[in-house]
Design goal:
The complex is a heterodimer of chains A (182) and B (410). By secondary structure, chain A is an all-alpha fold. Chain A is 80% helix and 0% strand. In chain A, helix 1 (3-24) packs antiparallel against helix 2 and helix 2 packs antiparallel against helix 3. The longest helix of chain A is centred in the last third of the chain and has 30 residues, at 152-181. Chain B has 410 residues and is mainly alpha-helical. Chain B has one domain (69-368). Chain B has helices at residues 3-40, 56-66, 77-94, 110-113, 125-146, 150-181, 186-196, 200-203, 205-218, 230-233, 243-268, 283-305, 311-338, 344-366, 387-390, 398-401; strands spanning 375-376, 381-382. In chain B, helix 6 packs parallel to helix 13 (311-338) and helix 9 (205-218) runs antiparallel to helix 13. Chain B is globular, with a radius of gyration of 24 Å. The chains are: A mainly alpha (182), B mainly alpha (410). The A-B interface holds A 29, 33, 36, 52-53, 56-57, 59-60, 63-65, 68-69, 71-72, 75-76, 79, 138-140 and B 79, 122-124, 127-128, 130-132, 134-135, 137-138, 141-142, 145, 150, 153, 156-157, 160-161, 163-164, 167, 184.
């Protein structure tokens, strides 16, 4: 086993274990800590794929900014024992649905890996591939070129979507003061 | 020897050196800060342990090591024990990409370059520092939450809100420099300053001031040390920590301060370069140290001079002043870089903005009515308006004293 494979399996174990922790912990803060560990291990995955820019952004945005807000809300709203979820699980049929979907997902992944669809994809490894471009112009430059030339339309559409989300949040939080004025 | 093996060995050795050096510098920073603060306050400061108090950090360290480390009964033990280590780990790791000298001086072969004076020459260096400093908040928030104490929790929440607010301003303030440099690499930014023949503080005075204010808030230093405001929150998130765990938090604060100063020196003051002398061995490190020391001194100076600001002032400053100014700076810098006009255009713009800020500040101070200005006849001094709220008027009778206090216009 090469060092890269070893790193992959260690990371994979951490990622899966922390992902399980997110849904299995009874305490919301511990769930969130597992999610942070999960996001950090994903960042390390990106790093092991030489995508250092994406890895850094993953830490900066998800582990650093988004999760801090989550932590803020959870610790502020329920600082004491209320963060513990107790009682029996009422949605028992979810276990069945989960098991079925998990089998389908695992089957699809195994099929994809067995067919070598991921490894032999010409786009992933050819001379004009993204990987070759990245080594030629550098990580950040390749990312920027792809984002602002190749994918500029989806990028702009996403920004509009985010603006809509922000406006929605403002409208929702202002609803009560608006009624008072009427 | 294999180049990869050399790189790994070099990284381990350099990390060990950096960690040992940072811990030593932290110990002496506490002494320097206490001595400098003492001078500001016309005291002598600690001078008993060894010549000039040079053994004081050692004595403090011994004291801390032998103190009892209390874990409160209501604390969540695991998180409580881990939280200080998270702070220190993140603070130490962030320093890895700071260049203490030119890597090109170490030759071009990979084995020689592996020993260049920085732990990792990452091509997204500045983003790496931002990413790790955004993780620094976890040590504080988890420490405050796990203490099982309301003051600790309040301090932790303040810290989370403060760091999230000022992170945005830091990123945007730095972006101006990144546009001029055209790279995210710390080494590349210094080399760009050499190539263009200027320090970026000349092109980005506004960017520097915004960065400096936001960085002070980000490392929780006075006047932004609200998470540990002792008049309001006992000691904030630090309340329940004692002994070595307490000193771990102090350690991370000082190391974060050194990293913030290093980023300022690298981005705005040309890093290890000055006057073309950086070819001589040892000189780059001296320049770097001097620049960082000056910035650190300003941090201490601010702590000695400025009173802590209120929480609402903190939020208003971050979101309503720093953020819009940072965006404005970003737009103007983008125009300067895109249309390829000389760099001093952005300098003039920055100076105009700073001048307008100065005028607004002066006018607002003057607008306070002279009659509303309380004065002390004995001292023949006009006192600040805030004094009126707390001053006990000796001529007033007991009945009028019970009236609700008059609120000042500000």
């Amino acid at each position: 086993m090469t060092a890269q494979q070893l790193a992959f399996f260690v990371l994979a174990f951490v990622a899966v274990a922390s992902a399980l922790g997110v849904i299995l912990f009874r305490n919301a803060v511990y769930s969130m800590l597992s999610l942070i560990v999960n996001l950090l291990s994903l960042a390390l995955f990106f790093l092991s794929l030489q995508a250092i820019f994406v890895a850094t952004i993953q830490v900066l945005i998800y582990a650093g900014a988004v999760m801090v807000l989550f932590l803020f809300v959870v610790t502020m709203l329920a600082p004491e024992a209320d963060t513990n979820v107790s009682g029996s699980d009422r949605l028992r049929w979810q276990w069945v649905a989960t098991a079925g979907l998990a089998v389908i997902l695992a089957g699809g992944l195994i099929l994809a890996v067995a067919n070598g669809a991921v490894a032999q994809d010409a786009k992933a490894a050819g001379p004009n591939s993204l990987a070759a471009q990245v080594t030629k112009v550098g990580n950040v430059q390749a990312f920027g070129l792809a984002l602002f030339h190749g994918f500029s339309f989806p990028f702009e559409v996403t920004s509009v979507l985010l603006v809509i989300a922000v406006m929605g949040a403002v409208v929702l939080s202002r609803r009560f003061s608006g009624r008072e004025r009427e | 020897m294999d180049a990869t093996l050399v790189a790994i060995i070099a990284a381990v050795v350099k990390s060990a050196i950096v960690i040992a050096a940072l811990l030593t510098i932290f110990a002496y920073m506490t002494l320097i800060e206490r001595r400098v603060l003492a001078r500001f306050q016309r005291r002598v400061g600690p001078n008993r342990a060894g010549p000039f108090g040079l053994l004081q950090p050692l004595a403090d360290g011994m004291k801390m090591a032998f103190k009892e480390q209390i874990i409160p009964t209501r604390a969540r033990r695991l998180v409580f024990v881990i939280a200080p280590s998270i702070s220190v780990f993140v603070a130490l790791a962030a320093f890895a990409v700071v260049p203490l000298g030119s890597p090109t001086a170490w030759g071009s072969s990979p084995t020689a370059r592996a020993w260049a004076p920085l732990v990792a020459d990452v091509n997204v260096g500045i983003l790496y520092i931002l990413a790790l400093s955004s993780l620094a908040v976890y040590g504080i928030v988890l420490g405050g939450w796990s203490s099982g104490n309301h003051y600790s929790l309040l301090g932790a929440l303040r810290s989370a809100a403060q760091m999230v607010s000022y992170e945005v301003s830091i990123g945007l303030a730095i972006a101006g420099v990144l546009m001029f440099a055209g790279t995210l690499s710390m080494v590349g930014i210094v080399q760009a300053q050499v190539q263009q023949g200027i320090w970026f503080i000349l092109a980005q005075p506004l960017g520097f001031i915004l960065y400096f204010i936001a960085a002070t808030a980000e490392v929780n230093r006075a006047p932004f040390d609200l998470p540990e405001a002792e008049q309001e929150l006992v000691a904030g998130y630090l309340t329940e920590f004692s002994g070595l765990r307490w000193s771990l938090y102090q350690m991370s604060e000082y190391i974060n301060m050194i990293t913030a100063a290093s980023v300022a020196a690298t981005l705005f003051f040309g890093g290890w370069t000055l006057g073309g002398l950086d070819g001589i061995p040892g000189i780059p490190f001296v320049w770097y140290t001097i620049k960082v020391a000056v910035v650190l001194f300003v941090f201490i100076w601010m702590r000695a001079t400025l009173p802590r600001i209120r929480y609402d002032q903190l939020m208003r400053l971050g979101w309503q002043l720093l953020l819009p100014l940072a965006v404005l700076n970003l737009v103007v810098t983008a125009a300067v870089v895109a249309f390829d006009v000389p760099w001093w255009i952005s300098t003039i713009f920055s100076l105009i903005v700073l001048a307008i800020g100065g005028i607004v500040y002066y006018v607002r101070r003057r607008r306070v009515e002279p009659s509303a200005q309380p004065s002390d006849e004995a001292l023949r001094l006009a006192l600040p308006t805030s004094v009126r709220l707390v001053r006990i008027d000796s001529s007033a009778s007991a009945a009028t004293a019970r009236q609700p206090a008059e609120v000042s216009p500000n």
